[in-house]
Amino acid sequence: xxxxxxTSGKSVRVFFAIWPEEAIRNQLCSLSERLGVACSGRxxxxxxxxxxxxxxxxxxxxxxxxxxxxxNTVREQRFDFIVDRAxxxxxxxxxxxxxxxxxxxxxxxxxxxxxxxxxxxxSFENRTFKPHITxxxxxxxxxxxxxxxxxxxxxxxxxxxxVLVKSEQASDRTVYTPIGRWALIPTQR
Length: 189
Ligand code: 2AM
What we know:
By secondary structure, the chain is α+β, with helices and mostly antiparallel strands. It has a single domain, classed as Cyclic Phosphodiesterase, Chain: A (Alpha-Beta Complex), CATH 3.90.1140. The protein is 25% helix and 37% strand. The chain contains 4 helices and 9 strands; from the N terminus they run βαββαββαβαβββ. The chain has helices at residues 22-39, 64-72, 104-119, 146-149, and strands at 11-18, 42-43, 51-60, 79-89, 94-98, 133-137, 150-159, 161-169, 174-183. The strands form 2 sheets. It has a 5-stranded antiparallel β-sheet with strand order 2-6-5-4-7. A 4-stranded antiparallel β-sheet has the order 3-1-8-9. The longest helix has 18 residues, at 22-39. It is globular, with a radius of gyration of 17 Å. Adenosine-2'-monophosphate is lined by residues 15, 52, 55, 125, 134, 167.
């Protein structure tokens, strides 16, 4: 399904991501509340919680159609992303949630997206994929204690689709708007 882009500018900052539905967002939000208090950092706003697949950065608006056509050809099956831990990234001063075991289908999805984008002439920063759901920023810690690192009850996130997101800077906040959505192939669980 495509969502009309409401933009008049010549370039747009975009990335591919998986975006939690309400039930999972609420669980991640509760986790960010716990971590935010313990680490005294700045929590991500609930509606901005996501997992980035490929960050494309600034592209021309005129490239969006080509990007969507390339994305239309990506096929991968549904998977669960099992969030069972939090980690601290000292360099970036952020605390994020992640999975001890990264699903192969997630890795394949990212590889496919990168390959299709490159084949269509889009250049982007090709960092090693490190799945992370940023929850708290501006954290000052030496390390994250184990009591905060491991979740008592993992959050089982059923991933059914992925999105293309436009990122904009409003006066005091970052606004993310989905501008495309693609379904993953259903499998028998
Ligand atoms: P972060 O949460 O670690 O900041 C939108 O900026 C999303 O793209 C965020 O999830 C951000 O990760 C990710 N991202 C990856 N590479 C980026 C880059 N070079 N610049 C900005 N954001 C990037």
